[in-house]
Amino acid sequence: MRRNMLLLFFATMIVTGQPAPRVERNIAYAMPRNERQLLDVFAPAGAAKAPVVVWVHGGGWMRGSKEEVDHKPKAFVEKGCVFVPVNYRFVPQVRMEEIVRDVAKATGWVHANIARYGGDPERIFLMGHSAGAQLAALLCTDTRYIEAEGVPREHIRGCVPLDGDTYDVPLQVATSTARRKSQKQPPPKMGHPEKFGNAAQQRELSAVNHIAPMRGIAPFLILHVADHTDTSAQAHRLWAALEMAGVKAKIYGAEGSDHMKLDRDIGLAEDRSTALLFAFLQECLR
Asked: How far apart are CA 22 and CA 44, in angstroms?
């Protein structure tokens, strides 16, 4: 279904006489080559110094794919952006910190190579949904990961996390634990503690714990589902931490949406979250 959307997009461009974007798939950003460390590049025809969007998919850090992009390649390419969705490895095969390093390494590849596709390595945006929201937000606040891959923090121009529930992992663990106890439910076999590790590791992997004034953190647009209790609470927790540190941050709760719909609708012309996202991009690029 999602691959069909892309095929329809490219076919429409051919029929209407629009120059087709440059597309390269399954580029390895780490060696030895494996399926979980690949990325795709969608670039506008004739792009030169175009802003770059690195997209991190969701899936609970255990599933998902860079193929799950729906309308996004079409929407970002039409706005003059190079769009780069990435894969990463999963728990429990690797530790959460290694997943973070995968996305940082993919961003490092983009910074080193995207000029060949018409992208500007000094204007990179990190975005992601759900698990990808946590990863994008962490890399934009704890910039040690991307700096280790040769990406200066000032080259990250903005961050857009969508409906994440783990910007403050210990808070989410406490919330979900209290909820299960009140409802007399057993703990999950693979919950956040199993994925993130002990309390110290949970704190280290929480974006909010790396936010401080004068650290050069890029502006944020935090999107969440308005009536989703956990992701709304986490979105406001992240927004408040950024505001307190003097980092430019906006927050928007999407009405009449849900966790998957919010992601799926990004790129649709009538979608309010999409309009806010592209307005945010323009503001960051001025």
From this structure: 6
The H or E element that residue 141 is part of is helix 131-141
Q: Which residue has the tokens 């429990």?
A: 92
Please state, as a whole number, how many other Cβ atoms lie within 10 Å of the Cβ of residue 185. 10
Buried b (16+ CB within 10 A) or exposed e, 212-241: eeeeebbbbbbbbbeebebbbbbbebbbeb
* Distance, CA of 85 to CA of 54 (rounded, Å): 6
Are the beta carbons of 55 and 132 closer than 8 angstroms? yes
| Structure token digits, residue 81 | 């952006």
Tell me the pTM.
0.94
pLDDT per 10-residue tile (average), the chain, 286 residues: 54 63 98 97 97 98 98 98 98 98 98 98 98 98 98 98 98 94 91 97 98 97 97 98 98 98 98 98 96
- CB distance 27 to 41 below 8 Å: yes
Radius of gyration, alpha carbons of the chain: 18
